[in-house]
Amino acid sequence: MKKIFYVLFTLLGVSLILAPVAKAQDTYKIGAAIALSGSIAVYGEGFKKAIDLATEEINGKGGAKGKKIEILYEDNKSTPKDCVTAVRKLITVDKVPVIIGPAASSNFMAAAPVAQESKVVMLSAQGAAPALTKAGEYIFRVFPSDVLQGKGISDLCLQLKYMEVPIMYVNNDWGLGLKNVFVENFKKAGGKVTDEIPYDEKKTDYRTELIRATKGNPKAVVNLTYIVEGSVMFKQAYEMGINTQWICGSAAKAPKLVELAGKAVEGIIGTYPVFSQETKDYQAFRSLWMKKYGDAKIPIFGEYNYDMVHLIARAIDQGGYTSDGIRKALFEVAKGYRGVTGDKTFDQDRGVGSEYGVWTVKDGQIIDYKK
Amino acid sequence: MTFLLQSIFNGLLAGCIYALFAMGLTLIYGVLNFVNFAHGELIMWGAYFLYLFMESPLGLPLPIALIPALCLTILLGLSMDRFAFKPLRQANRLTLLITALGLSFFLRNGAQLFWGAELRTYGFEIKRGWKIFNISITTNQIAIILTTLVCIAVVYLLLHRSRIGKSMRAVSDNLELARVAGINTRRTIRFAWIMSSSLACIGGILLALDTNLQPGMGMINLVKAFAAILLGGVGNIWGALLGGIVIGFAENLGVLIISTGYKDAIAFGIMVLLLLLKPPILYGSQD
Questions:
Q1: Could you tell me if A39 and A57 lie in one domain?
Q2: In terms of domains, do A212 and A268 share one?
Q3: Looking at chain B, which residue has its C-alpha nearest residue A230?
Q4: Could you tell me if A151 and A267 lie in one domain?
Q5: Are residues A256 and A362 in the same domain?
Q6: What is the pTM of this model?
Q7: Which one of A198, A260, A263 has the shortest CB-CB distance to B259?
Q8: To the nearest whole angstrom, how far is the Cα of A204 from the nearest Cα of chain B?
Q9: If you measure CA to CA, which chain B residue comes closest to A240?
């Protein structure tokens, strides 16, 4: 019995030593610290599909700077602590110069200083918190900041004549950041925020928060929520017979929300950064997706992840496989670059702009909202 | 007014579930003298076992699926004892505590491996609740309250009217003395695990019916149950029942005054206060 163990251990050791050597430097490695387990794994699976699709496409066309690119996935387990661990591992063990950062602003912001200190480029494809790129010059995002979205939600409320609304939000960097921008804009425009209700993630019971939010039967409630929390909440609101117009942000706009909460989410509306789905690039992306995955159900933020991988590959191609090369080249390759999510030109804060649209759920489908 | 009534009702609901968890937890504490941190995972696995039998390919209706789910949870509880805790019967409390924590991680990640981290439901149609005195009540919620009452009655009868229950109370009072008096302690311990697992399974299923299934569902609520048993006096089953309901009320009524962001802090606040003050009323005699 003991002998078998020794043999197994030796084999394990040998394979650990050999594995990296065998594949060394055949490819340009890109780190990806995304959520493959934990509370927001529901997003992570979609990101991985989009990233894989882009990688396959790039490699099919010869890769970047003469070599194929390879994505090294590292599960960030959806917690800030494990995000830091994952990013640190990618930097110190795998020595990648560029990392696809974790989703959820609090997770990303926990890991961003690690990348910045090690001078490794890290990008976000869905981080919206206004403070996200403040960590430093190595941190980029291909997703628009919530400064724009907060104003978008405020404008939507005004447009629909909801002048007095309570606001519920996920108690983390993203929720708080977006809430602040919303409140600021809404008050400036003459609106009144009747109550502010922060709530924790991952809970199974939000009834108390819901009754507090709907105290005095407001006509509309702004709810900055994620897929999982949103589905639990809207279900419980439905059971409780709450009748109000829910107004959400972009993070809840997902087919998964409808799948989980069913008719409870009928009629909710929300804002989201829009890009035209009529462009040639988008059509090409969609047909590629169909070919690889057999359906047109593109997961939330999938397009942004796809664009991000293309930008990284271009930056490696132009600036070389070093973090400073990539960092400098990112500005150049992104300038005027039109991906499937539109113009990706980085501003001085290493973020991008966008337009905002309004979505709603009708008959179990997420569609554009028309008044 | 409606707001207040609804909060009281929600408090009662949360309290019922915490009470079921706390009773199971305190039963094991009473007999074996350690806190089973893996109790939360018994809750979660109980709920997932039901899911297993209700989903395809089996697709059994709820009342039938309940039976194998309950049996499997009991089996899990018994194996927990047989393989993890029994070899450590003579070990000190810290060893037991760490074992229980390890087991908790193992079982939670096991469930995640099996079913994934995503949220699941039993797939019942969502229904609007009824309006009674202007507060909304769903069928599931009535089921929760009724089931809790039935569980309490059964536990009472078992503990106070049956021979095995009496010997359990004796073991809980003093293991050595009970053994000397000729009580079969092994059998008694096994019985405590069966009761604890059943309560966990039922509580988990009720919680999942009312909300959702998630591998972390047991863990979050276990902490509340823990606060409940501290409140009720450790090892005291009726104290645990009362403690659970008090915590449920405190949480749901507390947010009328303070921000909802601190909802979870209420249970912990109570726990810390109790540990600091140790009021003699709560730490009096057992049962």
A1: yes
A2: yes
A3: B119
A4: yes
A5: yes
A6: 0.74
A7: A198
A8: 6
A9: B136
Is domain B2-121+138-277 classified as CATH 1.10.3470? yes
Contact at 8 Å (CB) between A97 and A28?
Answer: no
Nearest chain B alpha carbon to A227: B119
Of B263, B206, B274, the C-alpha closest to B16 is B206
Q: Say yes or no for a CB contact (<8 Å) between A239 and B214.
A: no
Which residues does chain B have within 8 Å of residue A215's beta carbon, measured at their own beta carbons? Answer: 3
Q: Which of A38, A198, A207 sits opposite B261 (nearest CB)?
A: A198
Supply the ipTM of this predicted assembly. Answer: 0.72
Would you say residue A317 lies in a domain? yes
**Complete DSSP assignment for A25-56:** TSEEEEEE---SSSTTHHHHHHHHHHHHHHHH
In the A/B pair of chains, how many CB contacts fall below 8 A? 92
Q: Which residue of A has its CA nearest to B141?
A: A239
Judgement on whether residues A134 and A30 belong to the same structural domain of the protein: yes
One domain, residues A73 and A96: yes
Question: Which stretches of chain A sit within 8 Å of chain B by CB?
Answer: 37-39, 41-42, 78, 171, 197-200, 202-205, 207-209, 211-212, 215, 228, 231-232, 235-236, 238-241, 260-264
Residues A175 and A245 reside in one and the same domain? yes
Q: How many domains does chain A have?
A: 2
**CATH number for the domain including A257?**
3.40.50.2300
- Band the pLDDT of A21: cuts 50, 70, 90: very low
Percent of chain A with pLDDT over 70: 93
What are the structure tokens assigned to B45, written together? Answer: 């696995």
Residue A23 pLDDT more than 60? no
Which residues on chain B are in Cβ contact (under 8 Å) with A41? 116-118
Phi/psi for A252 (5° steps) reads -95, -5
Same-domain check for residues A248 and A265: yes
Domain interval for residue A165: 147-275+357-368
Reported as a single tens digit per residue, the pLDDT across A120-142 is 999 999 888 888 878 889 999 99
Q: Give the tens place of pLDDT for each residue, A140-193.
A: 999 888 888 888 899 899 988 999 999 999 988 888 888 998 999 999 989 899
pLDDT digits (tens, 9 = 90+) for A255-268: 888 888 888 888 89
What per-residue confidence (pLDDT) applies to B287? 42
Q: Test A212 with B210 for CB contact under 8 angstroms.
A: no
Strands (E), A154-259: 164-170, 192-199, 220-224, 245-248
More confident residue, A114 or A127: A114
Which helix or strand (DSSP H or E) is residue B264 part of?
Answer: helix B263-277
Of A265, A167, A162, nearest in space to A223 by CA: A167
